[in-house]
Amino acid sequence: MREMILAKTGELILKGGNRRRFQDMLKGNMKRSLKAVGDFQIYDQQATVYVLPEREDDIDEMVNRLSKVFGIVNLSRAGIIEKDMEKIMNFAPEYLSDALMGVNTFKVESRRADKSFPYKSPEISAMVGGALLDAFPHLTVDVINPDVVVRVEVRDTDAFVYAGRIKAAGGMPTGTNGRAMLLLSGGIDSPVAGHMIAKRGVYVEGIHFFSYPYTGEKAKEKVLTLADRIADYTGSMPLHIVPFTEAQLAIRDNCPSEHMTLIMRRMMMKIANEVAKKRECQGLITGESIGQVASQTVWALGVTDSVTDIPVFRPCIGMDKDEIVQIARKIDTFETSILPYEDCCTVFTPKHPTTRPNIENILKSESHIPFDELCKKAIEGIETINIRKY
Ligand code: ATP
Ligand code: MG
User: Fold this and answer.
1) CA 162 from centre of chain
2) Are residues 64 and 183 in the same domain?
């Protein structure tokens, strides 16, 4: 039996004149994500993109991949049958038995794109509904609030039948909303932040500050895995690894310890800001959340932000840890994030960091180190890894 995939696009419908461009981007992203699986046909009509795999066996993996393509709200699998009323009535109960076994009520909705088909939509619905009632005596029809909606569509070439939907990633197609640079640590929050911004159609690059030998290969691998999880949804992700040891040692040895973390944060942001602009990113992304640690008080965030001249997106800013963890589990980063390898911040954390810094004092402390030079040197040492999923 052949099946096809129906991908429903959501918000695209709101975008007026841009809708065509967005849907074409989405179709391009879908094609790229499916290419390695096998051959298929793809076309769209209104807010649905249809995918017809050439090989029956490819459909599970195709559905799996499409469930991670941003811009698709939900997916359905539809069984394809010859355009013959008798055959449709025999096929529907068999194909939909799993979907209908555990429910009590249903209704049938039909569409007839081929106007030469001898039955009108309401007649198709009534006849298929009758066949389902005969096959499943436990069912009743409820047109107002059914447990399941069975859909029948008669096209020019054939007909298809489906019920139920699989929730997909939602959001907007990758590439429709510019580019941003994610400060990606090995923790729980920053991968979630990156995912949330990527979901809105922003292509995300990553930058990671690496303090060898205070942090080791395992820590780097962990960050690569996290970037990989984000790229599962966006197709690819360049990851810039910044050598940060020299800068951190300079800060540790020359700046007052209560300002150490903040100066380090400012240096990270400054470097990320410069790399972002070079890579034509329009914004920065961090995993910060108000009050989570000393460097994330509202005062500290202001001091950190003042080194940047592009917008800083902090999608976790108002979230509790358990809410962030919930998303981390959903996008499959949590188990990696909690692996115990130190990151460069934990190694250099002072005992009593300021929580209410003011910028004058920070600048005074910062003047003990060649801030700009250290930034420049770190940028020169960047190694870029291109993660490519499709
Ligand atoms: P996370 O769980 O994302 O590590 P956190 O609660 O540990 O966050 P901090 O260590 O204060 O918070 O870092 C705040 C933000 O700074 C992170 O969310 C991340 O965006 C960025 N960041 C921290 N360390 C690094 C690093 N080594 N490389 C790149 N970005 C970093
Ligand atoms: Mg961290």
Assistant:
1) 27
2) no
